[in-house]
Amino acid sequence: MAKKPPGPPLEGLRRQIARSRSERSARSGSVFVRETFRLERTAARAKAREWFETWPKAAYWTEVESWRQLEGDEIEFTMRRLPSAD
What we know:
By secondary structure, the protein is α+β, with helices and mostly antiparallel strands. Helix content is 42%, strand content 28%. Strands 1-3-2 form a three-stranded antiparallel sheet, covered by helices on one side.
């Protein structure tokens, strides 16, 4: 049986997507503050808990906007919140 060829390198695509997302958020004038983290699973949970304690969901609309599991039990996630609770 023939071997499946390896997939193409994706690092360039990842950079392009990240650049596009940052440019889009800068243009859109979004009122939310976003920060992306790439941490080991327990550290990721602790960081998310820290955000919810510092900026409570009821006042700042804090949420985990997106997340994905990477190799080696690492999690990449984006936290989102309002800049102030007026």
